[in-house]
Amino acid sequence: AAETIAYERGATEIKQHPFFEGVNWALIRSATPPHVPEPVDLTCFASKDKETMAGGGDEGKKSNNHPSSHHDPDYIDFEYF
Q1: Three-class SS of residue 13?
Q2: What pTM was estimated for this model as a whole?
Q3: Banded model confidence at residue 43, pLDDT cuts 50, 70, 90
Q4: What is the tens place of the pLDDT at every residue in 46-79?
Q5: Is residue 10 one of the residues assigned to a domain?
Q6: Residue 16 within a domain
Q7: Mind giving me the DSSP string for 14-80?
Q8: Does a structural domain hold residue 7?
Q9: Cα–Cα dist 58/53, whole Å
Q10: Which parts of the sequence are annotated with region: Disordered (predicted)?
Q11: Phi, psi of 25 (to 5 degrees)
C-alpha cells in the first residue's frame, strides 16, 4: 500500500502546529487577507506570445521558439497545453 500523509486527529492536529501559533481559528473567516487580487489579475502569470493573446495566432500551431521544436531530448515526451 502507498504511504499517505495523514494525521490521527485531522485538522485539529494541523491547527496546533507551531507554524499556526497565534491564529484565532474561531475568527479566521472574518479576517481580512493581506492581499485580495482583482478577479482578472493576470500579473501573477507569465505572459504568452502577444499574437496568441490578441487572438491573431493559430493555437494549433507550435511556435518556432517553442522548446519542443528544438528536438531537445529533455522534451521528447513533454506535452504543452
Answers
A1: helix
A2: 0.36
A3: confident
A4: 776 555 555 555 544 544 555 445 566 777 777 7
A5: yes
A6: yes
A7: HHTSGGGTT--GGGGGGPPPS----TT--TTS----HHHHTT-S-TTSPPTTSGGGGT-GGGTT---
A8: yes
A9: 10
A10: 50-81
A11: -65, -25
